Amino acid sequence: MSKTTEEKRAVFRQLHEQGSLVLPNPWDLGSLQRIEKLGAKAVASTSAGFAESRGREDYRMSREEVLAHLEEMCSATDLPLNADFESGFAESTGELSQSVELAIGTGIAGLSIEDRHGKGLFPEDVAVERLRTARNAIDKSGQDVMLVARCEGFLTGTAELPEVIDRLKAYAKAGGDVLYAPGASKRSDIKEIVGAVAPKPVNVLLLPGMQARDLFELGVCRVSTGSFLTDAAWRALESATRSVLEDGKLP
């Protein structure tokens, strides 16, 4: 690749300063290469998409497997890559610090840490301390890696908007560079989230029916696709296979 890791990280931060960033989520090298050729400026990994590509469910990959995946992806592209690093593959803050250090070593430009714990969320004070730990690990490394603080309250169904906003504000103070509450869908909710953590940038998961330009008009800095591109690819495969098996022909 022609760009160094440091150059990719600098580009990633500049893209956030410019705003209106569309961040597709490839799940393997093939999808990454195609997305790069189509003109993406940066990409993000997807834990669900990667797991599905290995025939598993989300949150069923080991830390070592995810680290190897991130290193492979980063070494294959000139695009900055934001890592979907789940909850850091750690229970204790000591383990989390080590996980973040290892993730930085793969060449990523951004690192997402969730507050999900099992089917719910870590208590807010615990989640805040974990974000501080991730922030300190990044700062200690001396590397310009952006920390994305994720509140999973909407996806787990365990938190309403007021709690999600309270958590995002706390995560911003704890050192999150970008705030993200996947599952936010109402314009009024998204606008309130953006205002609550301003001037820090907000990422929104691009759900079916949404338009990126509309989200940017609300003040959203970047949009990502999560596992939706992976899902679209699987649907296309299933449709084509069904045509072959049932009709004896390709669609």
- Main-sheet strand order equals 1-10-9-8-7-4-3-2
Our Rg estimate from Cα atoms comes to 18 Å
**What is the general shape?**
globular
How many helices? The count is 11
Helix content: 40-55%
Secondary-structure-derived class: alpha/beta
Helix and strand sequence: HEHEHHEHEEEHEHHEHEHEH
What do you see in this structure?
With 251 residues, the protein is α/β, with parallel strands linked by helices. It is built from 11 helices and 10 strands. It has helices at residues 5-18, 29-37, 47-53, 63-75, 93-104, 124-141, 153-156, 161-173, 187-197, 212-217, 228-247; strands spanning 21-23, 43-44, 81-84, 110-114, 116-117, 120-121, 146-150, 178-180, 202-205, 222-224. The strands form 2 sheets. An 8-stranded parallel β-sheet has the order 1-10-9-8-7-4-3-2, sandwiched between helices. Helix 5 (93-104) crosses helix 6 and helix 8 (161-173) packs parallel to helix 9. The longest helix is centred in the C-terminal third of the chain and has 20 residues, at 228-247. It is globular. The mean pLDDT is 97.
